[in-house]
Design brief:
Blueprint: H1 2-10, H2 13-29, H3 35-42, H4 51-76, H5 87-96, H6 100-124, H7 126-134, H8 138-149, H9 151-154, H10 160-174, E1 177-178, E2 185-186, H11 200-218, H12 238-259, H13 266-280, H14 292-316, H15 322-332, H16 342-345, H17 347-380, H18 384-403, H19 406-424, H20 430-452, H21 459-462, H22 464-493
Antiparallel strand pairs: 1-2
Helix pairs in contact: 2-3, 2-4, 2-17, 3-4, 3-15, 4-5, 4-6, 4-14, 4-15, 4-17, 5-6, 5-14, 6-12, 6-14, 6-17, 7-14, 8-20, 8-22, 10-20, 11-18, 11-19, 12-13, 12-14, 13-14, 18-19
Protein name: Putative tricarboxylic transport membrane protein
Domain DUF112: 14-434
Pfam family, one: TctA
């Protein structure tokens, strides 16, 4: 580790890493442009670099891209990346209260904590956690996703019925398109447009970015999205840090655990962490109104997936999400294929990856606290008639760049209209996003599981990992219900 650190500081590696972090932060801060897109665009530029410089640059982009989404989420209520959707819930209300500086400071520090925790897991627990991930079969995935669906109940707002309708709409949309197992078109009504289905990324951009643009256009009396900010008090106090320690630990553990499961990642982790923080809070009603613990949960959790998703990559050669799949491509163009023997065959590359995660997190923290928080918010606080068209164009361009498909642009516009209508009717949008993110994986894993077990659900309770998730799911649903019944009984007695 020390030899690798010395090599990083002796050349231009640290500068490449800083370039990657800043580029990632910019991509993350612009709605529609994601960390995945930034890494994919930069992979060809690393072709002429040596492997240390190349991985340092790409991991810098990765860390910066996941962290950068918090800026637009807090200042505009438009998540820069899917990993920052839950950050909008409390970040934007704080910005509207004139506390954008505090919100940004808390979110940046939480991102740093999540990354550092995942780095520790990456170094010390990678082989063991990779074995756990390898033990996950279809039933384990089904149980884990069922646990994720419980967040729909908590994040449904005032009406659980509206939340269930929103979740059902999301599940209905993911069923449209080509059947993942048979390859046959399903619920397309003979339309070529619907064959490709409703990918969740364009849908998410529409629901949270375009819908907010439409809402801001409607509020034409307001010249700016948020009021003028002094951006003071950006550092968390010692008391706030101490109070947040359980939240930091819980959200980091959840983020790492979700990160090691291929195909889920930070897009889902921020919802689960937010949901669990709200359930653990003594004042859950304050969430969504400017509670900094909501920011701590979301940003700690999504950044903790960074180290988590790298664990199966370096231990098994299996990418944990789309970004690590791009990182795998960056390694393979150098003739390096990660796997069980990676630590013995390429120790210098492995330690370069470890140190890149560590140093990128410090560079992100320093850049955001010293420059980013002071520069980015004023750039976003320009008159709406200038800002909104720019965000609209960038969002549609980002939707197109995901799959280079015009269909995705139309899906973004359609879901933007749906999101705007849901806002007007006060239907929560979080359940539809959760089910769209997890719906396809849930269906595919459930069908595979039932095929393997001849239609039996018994392995859900005979598999230790699946049983753990089933029990957690039952407790997660039961405890809030029991708490409400007790409160009702006390009120009746009084």
């Amino acid at each position: 580790m020390l030899e690798s650190l010395e090599m990083i500081f002796s050349g231009f590696t640290i500068l490449y890493m800083l370039f990657g972090v800043v580029l990632g932060l910019l991509f993350g801060a612009i709605p529609g442009l994601t960390a995945t897109l930034a890494v994919i665009l930069l992979v060809p530029f690393t072709y002429t670099m040596d492997v240390t410089n190349g991985m340092a640059t790409l991991i810098g982009v990765y860390v910066g891209g996941i962290s950068g989404g918090l800026v637009a989420a807090i200042m505009l209520k438009m998540p820069g990346t899917p990993s920052s959707v839950a950050t909008t819930f409390d970040g934007f209300p704080l910005a509207r209260q004139g506390k954008a500086g505090k919100a940004l400071g808390v979110a940046v520090f939480s991102s740093f904590v999540g990354t550092i925790f995942s780095w520790l897991c990456l170094i010390f627990l990678a082989p063991y956690l990779a074995k756990v991930a390898l033990a996950f079969g279809p039933f384990e995935y089904v149980a884990a996703i069922l646990f994720g669906f419980t967040a729909v109940v908590t994040l449904s707002g005032d009406s659980i019925y509206k939340g269930i309708i929103s979740a059902a709409l999301g599940l209905g949309l993911v069923l449209i398109g080509t059947d993942s197992l048979t390859g046959m078109p399903r619920a397309t009504f003979g339309s070529e447009f619907l064959v490709s289905g409703f990918p969740y990324m364009p849908a998410l951009i529409g629901l949270f970015v375009l819908a907010e643009i439409f809402s801001q256009i409607e509020a034409k009396d307001e010249k700016f999205v948020v009021p003028s900010q002094k951006l003071s008090g950006i550092y968390m106090t010692v008391k706030e840090i101490i109070v947040s320690i359980p939240n930091f630990i819980r959200s980091s553990l959840i983020g790492v655990a979700i990160g090691i499961l291929p195909g889920i990642g930070g897009s889902f982790a921020n919802f689960v962490c937010y949901d669990q923080a709200r359930k653990a809070s003594k004042d859950p009603d304050s969430f969504g109104k400017g509670n900094i613990q909501g920011l701590v949960a979301s940003e700690t959790g999504n950044n903790a997936t960074i180290g988590g998703s790298l664990i199966p990559l370096v231990s098994l050669g299996i990418p944990g999400d789309t970004v690590t799949a791009a990182l795998l491509g960056g390694l393979m163009i150098k003739g390096i294929t990660p796997g069980p023997l990676f630590v013995h065959e390429y120790p210098n590359v492995l330690y370069a990856i470890f140190n890149s995660v560590l140093l990128s997190s410090f560079l992100m923290l320093a850049f955001m606290l010293l420059i980013g928080i002071k520069v980015m918010p004023p750039l976003l606080r320009i008159p709406k008639h200038v800002l909104l068209p720019i965000v609209l164009i960038m969002s549609l361009a980002g939707a197109y760049n995901i799959n280079f498909s015009v269909n995705d642009v139309w899906i973004t516009v359609f879901m933007g209209i749906i999101g705007f209508i849901m806002d007007k009717l006060k239907y929560p949008k979080t359940p539809i996003v959760i089910t769209m993110i997890l719906g396809k994986a849930f269906e595919m894993q459930l069908r595979t599981a039932l095929t393997q077990s001849d239609g039996s659900l018994l392995p859900m309770v005979t598999s230790p990992y699946a049983l753990i998730f089933v029990l957690i799911t039952v407790l997660t649903i039961a405890l809030p219900v029991i708490s409400k019944l007790r409160q009702a009984a006390k009120a009746k007695a009084a």
